[in-house]
Specification:
Strand content: under 5%
Number of helices: 8
Shape: globular
Number of domains: 1
Helix content: over 70%
Distance between the termini: 70 Å
Oligomer: single chain
Number of strands: 0
Radius of gyration: 19 Å
Largest sheet: none
Length: 229
């Protein structure tokens, strides 16, 4: 463990922690959105298990990130999945569908892990570059990011309870990330490189799509008064 006494190790570790602080914001939003409808005790479980599961998958993904990001249509598929998750989270915000508590918890954890995995396709490149192939450095750096995500999610949950509009903003953020991801897919690289002036259009359209469709589906699932049926 002589590496622990080198300046290079601590400098690289600091870079990884900083990268995770910067990139954990959207992940914390996903976790808060997915667990907001659970009872307080289950919220803590969803945040804890979802965060650990997501970090574990992110570690695995990091080793294959360069290869995966070179595959055409992968980001397009990931963008579609993120749009679906964002719409689903927003739709469930206004619905009153009754589901068993354990099913809610399992669904929240699954949503957290899937969304974090998709959103981490780009994020892990920065972490892997900072680690420079050092597995110990990579694992330690990502492990330190766990409390950042957990506490960030808890804070956002509290803010959502006071300011419900944050739920809509969070869902729109997923749509925005989906648009950015789609625009950077290798399958459309040549076209995208020649239309860089349009780079903001896909994120804006993604955010608008998630909010519009999510709100529309939520309104359809809300029971209407007998006189309006």
């Amino acid at each position: 463990m002589s590496m622990l006494y080198t300046t290079e190790f601590w400098l690289a570790l600091s870079q990884i922690i900083l990268i995770n602080i910067v990139l954990s914001g959207d992940n914390a939003v996903v976790i808060a959105l997915a667990s907001r409808s659970l009872p307080p005790a289950q919220q803590k479980k969803a945040i804890l298990f979802g965060s650990f599961g997501a970090i574990g998958l992110r570690i695995v993904l990091t080793f294959f990130a360069v290869y995966l990001l070179s595959l055409p249509f992968l980001k397009l598929a990931g963008a579609g999945l993120l749009l679906w998750i964002g719409i689903g989270l927003l739709r469930n915000d206004e619905g009153d569908e009754e589901i068993e508590n354990h099913s809610n918890l399992a669904a929240a954890i699954k949503t957290i892990i899937i969304a974090d995995l998709v959103m981490s396709l780009d994020n892990v490149i920065g972490v892997a570059a900072a680690a420079k192939g050092n597995t110990v450095l990579l694992v330690v750096g990502l492990a330190i990011s766990i409390p950042l995500i957990i506490y960030g999610s808890t804070l956002i949950l509290k803010l959502m309870a006071r300011f419900p509009v944050i739920i809509t903003i969070g869902a729109a953020l997923l749509g925005w990330v989906a648009g950015e991801m789609a625009f950077s897919d290798p399958a459309i690289k040549i076209w995208a490189d020649s239309h860089q002036n349009m780079h903001l259009i896909p994120p804006v359209l993604g955010a608008m799509l998630v909010v519009a469709v999510g709100k529309w589906l939520a309104s359809r699932s809300t029971p209407q008064p007998a006189g309006l049926a």
